[in-house]
Design brief:
This protein has helices at about 1-25, 30-35, 40-50, 65-80, 95-100, 115-125, 140-150, 170-180, 190-200, 215-225, 250-265, 280-290, 320-325, 345, 360-370, 380-390, 395-410, 415-420, and strands at about 55-65, 85-90, 110, 130-135, 155-160, 185-190, 205-210, 240-245, 270-275, 295-300, 310, 330, 350-355, 375. By secondary structure, the protein is an alpha/beta fold. It starts with a helix and ends with a helix.
């Protein structure tokens, strides 16, 4: 069956995907940039591989984008420090590639070539990987089939498979069976994921539950975050700090009215707002919202701080550290398309609040079901929940303790994955 699916994919499915990408690139600068940057992919790869010590085996990590790469970092960094290997990192999207060019633990960083038989054969011939690790879900069939034919081990790490995955629809199921069976090993996040992969006729010996490296990564970053001094010592003395992270306008419509009430009823309440997209227009809109209720200050102007109770973050890359200063936090995205990372505040042992759209997050569901997090449904519940947390220290600490314990209970996936990798080196 692989031969039939390979023909269908190579001569029908992928050409249609390529036409879609080219068409979409006319309207989307990110897609257009990704296509343009691939034009010298092989030329750059040849140049960059000339400096490698070929006595070392090369391990190739592929991530769709920046989020998946964060999950790969604990594994990469441990391998880099403890074993004599070369590390190749590839991305499908420009966001991952462009934001990781200075990553110090990779010997090579590249775009993944488009998934044609010719491109994959050429890329593998130049890179000469001893092992390929795909992060989470970015699966490219011609790549998998070619690696299998060359007997190059290929693993999926942090693998998930939902019960209602569209990959299990009638036609898609047959196709994915012809892909997953050619992996060397599939390392899943949970037992449920493992059972769901079995439905693709994957040999049970190829499946193993190891956990999720996101817990390891967020724990590592939290330790480093404590050393960063975003605010001077004692800056928040006597204050009750609420961090509103990764906010979208749909979140702000619910949380900002509740925050204004909190500012009115509690003189010690202070809110830090980190917009998901800190554009000038978005920041000005937030400032205007508070204009008649409280003074605001942008993070970049903090040297001029005069006891403003609304701090607006006008930069990126500091959110995880911001949660360190919080007594409670709200994680955005959950009134829109899907919640952002709830582990980032949870690791500091604080209550985590979020909206109702949490289908994309097992972690948010767990926190909600185990009293480490609270779902906010509307403006009234937002004020009621925030108010109760800040007037009841015991309640706040109890919820925070449960959220942190959830993270601590799930760290350790990296060590298990390293042991699996060792079997192929």
């Amino acid at each position: 069956m692989k031969g039939i699916w390979r023909l269908i994919y190579s001569f029908i499915v992928f050409p249609l995907l390529f036409v879609f990408m080219k068409t979409a690139s006319l309207f989307n600068a990110k897609i257009r940039r990704g296509i343009r940057k691939r034009k010298k992919l092989f030329e750059n790869l040849i140049i960059n591989t000339t400096g490698l010590d070929r006595k070392k085996k090369l391990i190739w990590f592929h991530s769709a984008s920046l989020g998946e790469f964060e999950q790969a970092k604990p594994i990469i960094e441990k391998l880099y420090k403890e074993r004599k290997v070369n590390i190749l990192v590839t991305f499908f999207s420009p966001s991952g590639y462009e934001n990781s060019l200075n990553y110090p633990y990779a010997d090579l960083i590249s775009y993944l070539p488009l998934d044609t038989t010719f491109n994959i054969r050429r890329f593998v011939l130049i890179a000469k990987p001893a092992l390929v690790i795909l992060m989470r879900y970015d699966i490219w069939p011609n790549l998998i089939w070619h690696l299998s034919g060359r007997k190059i081990p290929c693993l999926i790490v942090d693998a998930t498979m939902r019960e209602n995955s569209k990959r299990r629809l009638p036609v898609a199921l047959g196709f994915h069976k012809a892909v997953y069976k050619y992996f060397t090993k599939i390392l899943t996040v949970s037992h449920d994921d493992l059972e769901n992969f079995k439905r693709f006729d994957v040999n049970e010996q190829k499946l193993k539950v190891v956990g999720d490296t996101r817990f390891d990564r967020v724990y590592q970053k939290s330790l480093l975050a404590r050393e960063k001094k975003l605010f001077s010592d004692g800056f928040f003395y006597g204050k009750k700090v609420f961090v509103f992270g990764s906010s979208w306008e749909s979140d702000e419509d619910v949380i900002l009215p509740a925050s204004i009430k909190m500012l009115k009823y509690d003189k010690d309440f202070l809110i830090i707002i980190a917009p998901h997209e800190p554009t000038v227009v978005h920041i000005e809109k937030i400032e205007n919202y508070f204009r008649n209720y409280a003074k605001t200050i942008r993070f970049s102007y903090l040297n001029n701080y005069k006891d403003e109770r609304v701090i607006i973050i006008d930069s990126i890359g500091v959110l995880l550290t911001l949660y360190y200063y919080a007594d409670a936090a709200y994680v955005g995205g959950s009134f829109k398309q899907g919640i952002h990372n709830v582990l980032e505040p949870a690791v500091y042992g604080i209550p985590v609040l979020f909206g109702p759209k949490i289908e994309n997050s097992r972690e948010a569901k767990f926190l909600s079901n185990n009293n480490g997090g609270i779902i906010i449904k509307n403006k009234k519940s937002a004020f009621r929940v925030i108010r109760s947390l800040f007037i009841n220290d015991n309640l706040r600490k109890e919820l925070g303790k449960k959220s942190k314990q959830f993270v601590l209970n799930n760290i350790g996936a990296t060590e298990k994955i390293i042991k699996e990798i060792a079997n192929y080196l």
